[in-house]
Every structure is written in C-alpha cells, then in structure tokens.
Amino acid sequence: MGGRMNTLKIKNLFLRQSYKDAWADYERSLTKKYFIKWDYVILTASNEEQAKAYQIQIENRLKQGLLPASTHYAVLPDPEGKRVGSGGATFNVMKYIRKNSDTNECFQKKRILVIHSGGDSKRVPQYSACGKLFSPVPRLLPNGNRSTLFDEFIISMSGIPARIKDGMLVLSGDVLLLFNSLQIDFQFEGAAAISIKEDVEIGKNHGVFLSDEDGNVGDFLHKQTVEQLTHIGAVNKQGCVDLDTGAILLDSNVLNALFSLICSNNEIDPNKFNQFVNEKARISFYGDFLFPLASHATKEQYFKEKPEGSFCEELIECRSQIWDVLSKYKLKLLSVSPAQFIHFGTTKELLKLMVEEVTSYEFLDWCQKVLTNDNRELPYTCSNAYMSEESFVSSKSYIEDSYILGNSVIEDNCVISNVIVKDRQIPKGITLHGLQLKDKRFVVRIYATNDNPKGLLEENTDFMMIKFQEFLKNARLAKEDLWEEEEHYIWFAKLYPVCDTMEEALTWAMKLYEMGILGKDYKEEFLACERLSLFESFNQADVKKIITWQNELDQKIRMHQFINAIKDRENIEKAISVFGQAGLFEQTKKELLKVAEQSELSIKMRIYYYLSKMVQGHEGEELESACFKAICDTTCDAMTDALTYDENIAIQKDYVRVELPVRINWGGGWSDTPPYCTEHGGTVLNTAIKLNGINPIVVTIKRIDKPCIALASTDSGSYKEFTSIEELQNCNDPFDAFALQKAALIASAVIPRKEKIEFDTVLDNLGSGFYLSTKVVGIPRGSGLGTSSILAGACIKGLAEFLGNTLSENELYTRVLCMEQIMSTGGGWQDQVGGLTGGIKLITTKPGVIQEIQAEHIHIEEDVRKELQERMALIYTGQRRLARNLLREVVGKYIASNENSIEVLYEIQRVAVMMKFELEKGNIEAFTKLLNEHWELSKRLDMGCTNTCIDQIFLSCEDMLAGKMICGAGGGGFLQVILKKGYTKEELRQRIRTVFQDSGVDVWDCELV
After folding, report:
1. Phi, psi at residue 998, to the nearest 5°?
2. Quick check: keyword Nucleotide-binding in the entry (predicted)?
C-alpha cells in the first residue's frame, strides 16, 4: 500500500511539473514569434449553432490574447447539418485546408490540430448546445480565467508542434489527456497512437491497444474483461494496459493518401467528397480510418467492424477504398507515462469527477469551488455559481453556471446547470438544465443524473430513477403523447414545456418530476403545452444567450468577490486580480458604481479607488477624485450636521486679534488623516513653536460700517468685499484666495453651508458688516509647519471670540477639521491641535467619522526642556514642497490596503508613544534615535518625502546631527534636526551657509512654547 501511494505521489509530481512545462510552452506560444506553433487549430461541430458557439468563444480568447494570433482557427459543422461521422468530419477538415492553401502540397510542413467535438452530447445533455469541448474544468487558470476542456487542450498540446515535422494531431473532444510533450517524438512515416499506461481495471471499460513485436498497434481491443486482456497479452508486469486515449497523429503521407480519395488532380472532387461525406456511410475516424493501420488487421475483419452508423453498401465501398490507401501504413504506438486520462463522458461520470474525484487532482490546482460568491465552508462543488447565504447544497451535488437563491435546498447527487433556482427544494439524483431558445422563450430540461438519454423505452430504460414505463404510468401518459416516430428514444421524447420565463420553465420541470415520481395529475395541462425533446431543445437553443448568461454570471460573481476582497481589506492587486485577464466589463463597472453609491464610506471609497486603477485616462482620474470627494463629503456631512446657520449670533466685540504658534511633528504624522483615523484612530506627538521669536499666525477681525463682509489675505495682497451669500458659500476652489476664510464662516455658523438666505438678513442678524484678515508672518508657503490648518484654527478661534461664543478645545478642533473637509483639502487634525494648544502633546483619537480628539500634555523636567531647546533646530530647504498630491498618494496607498503602508502607519504611532515615554524619562538620546526611526518609516511610506536637495542638506551636516526628520509631508519646506552634544545652532548655521551659500537654505530660530 505504501509503495502504491509513493508511486502515485511521484506520478502526480511529474504531471504537475509537466503541466507547468505545458503552461510555459503555452505562454511562449503567445509571445514568441519563432516558437513553433500549430498552423491550424480546427474544431468540428454538430451544427451551425454549435459552430457559432465555438467560434464566439475562440474569438473572445483571441481578443484577450489567450490564443496564438498566428495560428489559423476554424470551426467546421457537419456539411448541410447532416451527421457524417467523425471520419466524414475529418474529410471536411481536409477540404477546408485545401481551400485555404496556396500550394498543392497543402499538408507538407503544416502542423494541424483537429479536435472532434461535434457530438450531440447525448450522455451529457447540458453540454449539447454549447458543446462538451467548452464545458468547465474545475480550476482557475493562472491568468484568472475559468478553464474549459478546450483551454486545457490548447495548453497541454502547446509543446507538440515542436515534436513533429508535419501532420495532423486528432483529439477526442471529451477526453482530457495529461502527459509531458517531451515524451512525444514523431519523426517516422505513417501514423501514431498516443497511449497511456493504466491499470487493467480501468482498461476493461475502455479501448485498449495491443502492440506487435515492432512497437506498432497490432489490434484494437474494446471493453474486454480482465481475463481476456491478460490472456491476449495486453497486460504488462505492472498490471497495466495501453489505453486508447483518442489522440492520433497522422503524418502528411497518410493525409495525402486519405485526401486522394476525395480529390482529382489535387482538387476537391464533389462527387468523391460526397461519396465519403454523407449521412448514410457515416465514416468513423476511429473505426474506419484506424483499423486498416493495425498490423494484425485483415480486410475481411475490417468489413465486419461495427460502424458509426449502420451497415450499407455505401459504407462497404468506402471501406474498400480506405483500406487500399491506408493498409500499407503502420500505426506506431507511443506510450507515455506517467500520464493521466480523464473522460468527460456522461452526467454520472461528470458528477463523480466533480464531487468525488476533484480532490484527487489538487496537484493540477483543481478545486471544489471555482468562481462563486459563497465564502461558507459548505463542501459542495460548483463552477460559476451565485449562492444566497440561506441556500443549502449537498456535498454530493454539483452546481455550474447557475443562481441558487433564497432558501433553496439542493439534495444529494444533483447536477444544476444554467438555471435560476429560488426558494425550491431539488430532490436527490436530479439534473436540471436551462436553455433560452432562439425565440426568446425558455426550456428547463429535467432528468436523473444516472439516465442514459440514448436508451429506448422498450429496453426498460430508466428515467428519473425509475423505469420509463413506470414513469409514464405514474404520469398518466401514453407513449403517443411523447413520440411521433416509431423509435422511442428518451432523446426524442417531447417532455419539456416551452415557457415565457425561466421561472415558469423550472416550475414545469418540477411538475414533470411530480407527475412521474409522485403521481400528481397535471396531464391535461401538460398535454396542452408546446413541448420539446432533448434533441429539439438543444437544436433550437440560442447559443449566444448561453454564452452571454455565463459571462454575465461570471462578472457578477467576480464583482462580489471584488467587493468581498475590499471588505476583507485585501490589497488592490489581489482585489483586481479576481477579474482575471479578461478584465472589467463595462456593465460590471456600472454595477459596482451603483453598489458604491449605496455603500458606507469604507466600501464606497475603496470601490472608487480600486476602479480608478483599472481604467485608463481621464476616467481613472475622475474615479480617484470621486474617492476623495466621498471621504470629504462623508466627514463633512457628519460634522456639519450640528453646524447649522445660527440666526441668533451677533457681533459682540469691535476688534479681535489672534496670534498662534506653528507646530513641528515628531511622531505619528499621517495617522491623523481621514480615512485612516476614522477607521483606526490616530496617534501623533507634536509641539507648538515660535519662529524667529514670534507667533507667526495672525488673524484680525473687526466691525466695519460697510454692508459687506470684507475678507483679506495679506500674504497674497488679496482683498474683496462680499455682498452675496452664494459667493461666500463657494469655498472648495483651491485657487480661491479666500477659500479658507469662507470655510471658517460656514464652520462658525456665520453663513449657511447650503441654504438660500438673503445677505441683508445675515448682516441684520450680525448687527453690522465685518472685516476678516489672515496673515502668516515671515513663513514661506509649503513650509511643512501646519500654517494653513493653524490659520484655519485661528479664524475659528477669532470668530468665536468676536461673536461671544465659548468653544472648548475639542469644539475648536472639530470645526477646523470640518473646514478641511468643506474645502476638500482632506487634511487631518494634528496641525490645528499643534498650534491651537501650546506645549508638547500626545494627541489621540478613536475610530469614528467624528474624531473625538484627546490632547495629553507632556510634562518634562526643565533641564530636559532646556537641553532639547538648545539642541533642536529648523533648516529651511529653500524650496516649497513639490507640487504633487502627496495626500492622495499616501492616503491612496492606505485605501488600496498596501501592506507596507498599513504597517508603517501602525509603526509611526508606536514610535510616537515611545517618544513620549523617553521624553518623560528625560532620555533625549533615545528620543533622537526614535526620530531617526520615524524618518526611515516616513521614507517607506512615501519616498517623495525626500529628494536630492533634502538628502544633500542632511549629508552636509551629518556629523553634527544626532537625529533628523522632515516637517510635515516633506519634499521641501523645513527640516528638523537634533544636534549632537557639543555642537551649537550657530555652528550648524555656518556649515549650512558655507555649503549652500545664498540659495535660501538656512537655519531658522525656533522656540518651544
């Protein structure tokens, strides 16, 4: 037992690596010009509609770059819609290649892949319309797309063209063959059959090759017993046989020999072609073409071989000619091992494969759930399935391309395909398959998972788990009610009512079950319905609608996976990857935008932001702006709910002047910025400072006799008298010199934010007009010292005093933060707290849209304070911060759940708390080390915080510095340093001036306050 398990493990490891090799070949086939590829890939189809479905799916893959563009792809239905057999279909392929060839030697030096996929799929009816070839395989490809048999064929066979000189590889469309292409070397004349070694217990249920002494196929053995296979000599010492995989290689000589049967003078002869390609002879590729190639075959045996259709004179004549041209060639046996043969033959096999055996193929990345919105641990198997949280699916059932909604229950051994099941209980053993017809109506086909639709009524065939005769008896139906012809195959029984909606069609499917199994009487109603058989419904199916259905469901599921990834705070790369290489459909984007509008901020902003990175150009910019607008609007709305216009406020003082310090940040910067602080809370350590001996932030307010509100920005020399409420309400223009003052008026309830009110009414309530001026003394713009926010704080503080309002510190902070949102600057709270409240403080908040700010004053010993004051210095870089949107970049990384950003935002808060601890302990050296640590973290958060100029300034005085850090977001403005003991600020100033001369880089005096 242990040896067998070890052998299986080795086999699986080999096949996994072989598949990786095949994927590498596949990727090379997409990107490398000189990589040897198939010249033709040709699929056969049962009718025009099925061919159309194949063609649509091939074209979709070509558009996505998932197929080699230089290969010629074609889908060929049986001529005139008649079933001409797989051999007839192969002749039709040859006719097509000749028509598209510029030379008479149309098969020489051509590598051709033919996949026979034109069957009716009678044993798996849910794949009849779109073809078994495009049925799902339970895995996501590395490109994120759901795999199908076709995709697996293309991938696994990508290495074969390099192994053959020319010729045609023919595959059966319902067999997945896994092996390493390096084991194939077809450099000889004739044909070859690719076989794999399988246990004789498996071989007894399939075709087996018996090799001759020269390594050619001697005989074909079909479903022989173990004893017979052993007696004949088909079983090797390991108990394995050479399994017929349906993969056959024909070189150009064999192709030319076959082609000679349907041409004259190297051109297609219509008479000869019609002789071999017709519904009566129905030539089989596997029976009629291969049998003459077996070394032990005789012509007499050949004429007795069971045909694909029925014995007739036309078939005998065709076989006679085929024998004459093919019997001189041999069929080489190419046995590959380790290898795997997976048959998608019947619904029963499909269910077993998907439910019981799927875990056996985990080495190929097969899994139980492929494309579903369902995160529950229920162990059922599904592919492209949308599930409600209330639904239940048995672990023994399989769902594909379906919605299972409401309180639906799917019992054991069910296969549910292409339907919407809502609030229903589907009994065990049932298969349901929905189809939209070309006339836009619907049919839902129901049958038992174990049924064989090829069966005859007279053969005591089962239908829905009981004998068909018993079913008819229970349903009170006669065979004349279901068949118009003498042969009573299930395939042709008119069982399924045609309905206007999927829901009605599903109701009738369940009624049919109740009629035949439970004996309920719906006979009259049933007979009054227009009904179709399995055969008719698949032929009348609208295959485009099937593909559209699958694609729309695929996108809906991916949309929910995307939203779930956002809810789980997955990073943007992982969230976007759920859409695979196919990317985001336009309709899905629209649906996501609708979801965003109805979602709370955390989800809304991330949907906008993530989508902004998935689209191009201006649309991406608009979506990013929508993200930050949502943050501002939500924060602002929450804060301004209590900030309504107060008609009772009036001017109480004639003159008010407010002077405030600026601030320097030591630890935790960026953690105070929405949405990080609203989701996690923030922690900042900063201190207020005077600059060059003064408080540089100045706001002056005074009563005036003019009937206006006069605003002045003395820094810019701007002055304007306002007599319009609408003008004052417009405060989110970043180029407006008065935006800050206007926002302060709104936040102070002097004017309404949105309501319409007469300007004269406002002045009457106030008692007069007034003048408001702002000034930043001696500090250049973009300093990094928080001047804008502190200026906003000074406005709020000054207006409160001017109007006779008493505001707590927290009310001051909240109103300033409200101003930031009104102006759409999106800033945080640490700047205004730093300037409005003197001293060194640790400022913290808890999560919440409305930030409740707690400022804890840090008390340090006087000697420690004095030492810190002496060693602390500010260096002006001579440049404003770069004109790039640092806020959006840093906050955007957080919104995108960038792991590095999230880690840094946490770490800088930890550093802030440790700084407080070391300052209180009087340990300035430890404090400076933490300052350096913060600087490194800041660079990890955003490398734009430094540049060549900043690096050179620090480098020029590095020997003098114990600690260094930027002020604000960086990129320019001021730098802060802590000198090593023994160095003075004057020495630092001289060093800086010596290096940078008159460039504007200089040391400024600062003082803790």
Report:
1. -100, 30
2. yes
